[in-house]
């Protein structure tokens, strides 16, 4: 069974000191590097939040406060600080992430009108990123997922992996949550298990 490691959004803006820093984010990077060192993955894919300036998921683009919610193109949208803007330092991958074995990069969130948490598609389920096509082209059947953040982009990427027919595993030690609300990480794990994701320690 061919397998791929999907590393979700390990970018400067989501790490300590970034515009949308996830608590404990730097702790997962040595774990992810070790996974790549100790396992023979057929493909290693990075996803990269890649927003145009003025993206509609930014609070600043809507005259709102960070933490508010609006309806954006028919779906609920949390208002985030400006982050991962194309071509900026914040959008770059963290320098400590070993990219020697990376075979493909998927950029998401490029449409200014709609956010894209999942590495597979936007939040409207309208535009695909090409990740599913890439994995299927390479006969990948099993995906292992790590990265940031557990309760948003990691969760939706894992759920979409299951929906697209992959045996899907999440490395709990390779992810951290934003935890806008205290129980978000726990709830995300439960949701993923219900959808068929296997959670590994």
TrEMBL record:
Q: Which domain of life is it from?
A: Bacteria
A molecular-function term among this protein's GO annotations:
nicotinamidase activity
Where's the Isochorismatase-like domain? 4-199
Q: Tell me, which GO biological process terms does this entry list?
A: pyridine nucleotide biosynthetic process
Q: Which InterPro entries match?
A: Isochorismatase-like_dom, Isochorismatase-like_sf, Isochorismatase_Nicotinamidase
Q: Tell me the enzyme class.
A: hydrolase
Give the pathway.
Cofactor biosynthesis; nicotinate biosynthesis; nicotinate from nicotinamide: step 1/1
**Keyword vocabulary terms for this entry:** Hydrolase, Metal-binding, Pyridine nucleotide biosynthesis
Q: EC?
A: 3.5.1.19
**Pfam families per record:** Isochorismatase
NCBIfam families, per database record: PRK11609.1
What family, per the record? Belongs to the isochorismatase family.
Q: What's this protein's name?
A: Nicotinamidase
To which species is this protein native?
Chryseobacterium sediminis
